[in-house]
Amino acid sequence: MSAPPKKRCVRRRHVSESSSEEEPVQDNVQAESDGLEEYEKEELDREKDIQERDAFVKRLINKDQELTRKISATPALSQYEDALRKVEAGEMSKKELLEELKKASRRSYLRKRQADKLADLKGEVEDEELFFDKDELSSKELAELQYKQTILAVAQSHQQAGELENISRYFIPTEDKRPDDKYKEEEKEKDGNEEGKRWEQEHVSSALYSFGAKDKTDKQLLAVSTAVPFPLGAVGGRLAENLKTAAICGP
Known about the structure:
The chain has 251 residues and is mostly helical. Among the domains are: 132-166; 209-251, no CATH class. The chain is built from six helices and no strands. The longest helix has 87 residues, at 3-89. The chain is elongated. The N and C termini lie far apart (149 Å). Residues 13-19, 179-191, 207-215 and 217-236 have low confidence and may be disordered. Keywords: Coiled coil. Residues 1-47, 165-199 are annotated as: Disordered. Residues 80-107 form a coiled coil.
């Protein structure tokens, strides 16, 4: 009668020992799972930050390139077509055309290079601010980061100031300043091509003057043939001479 209780006690002790052994294992698994989830969460957050940063830099580059195309592409094409027309008309030599094309290409390259350098600098500063704390940087690295931040701030301020200059604002006219003054300042070329604009105006004015002189001569000849519909021989004396003079000189 005493044997069965002993077996039950042994069984209970075995169960309790196995359960006590399993509890630390479960705790370790739970701790490892929590640590893994926290690491994965940090990794996902970091990847998300990188994707957002890359998307922002891409939008910035696209915006700068679009602005550059709007400013330079159409005027450059128009200037090229005008230059070809002047070469065909004999108003400009091929050597002068080549020099103008070199200048236009150089200006376009400098604008694009400026936009690319600004985007690269912005990306470097954002990377260093995202991946490194100031406490982790040495004094030299911290000085370089501050220098880059200063250069970036100055470049962005200069860019914003240039954009604000093109915005027309209303103000109360005074004796010293009128709305026409602001308008005259904005007549300058946005791409800095004042020399090319002045050169183009001189040649266009010359072409218009030549065309106007030729057109005036054609009108005078037309007036001679059409102003007097009847034979001048039928009118005699002083009246005929007056009609000839009026037809040649015009109204």
